[in-house]
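Protocol step 4 of 5: obtain the predicted structure for the target chain.
Materials: sequence only (see below). No template structures provided, no constraints applied. The aim of this step is simply to have a reference model before the mutagenesis design in step 5. Sequence pasted as it appears in the construct record:
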Amino acid sequence: MSRGYKAEVLVSGEWGQNGIVWPDRASAEEAARDLWSRWTATADHRAVEVDEEPNRPTWAEHVAAHGPPPRSVRL
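Step 4 output (structure tokens):
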């Protein structure tokens, strides 16, 4: 049984993820959708089950505490 979920994005034919572990699939899916919408080289996104303890609250709690993710990057 998995303990958490990670967001993944497909870039150049490979699925990538970071160290953030969400407590539920819905939060990981929202995080994946957010990354997919902001990165220009992504082809797809998904949430996957992992055998790791969550290290973030739910997506809604995270956004309430920190605000929505930025939509642009300054170079």
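Step 4 remarks: The beta strands are 4-11, 14-17, 42-50. Residues 4-66 form one domain.
Proceed to step 5.
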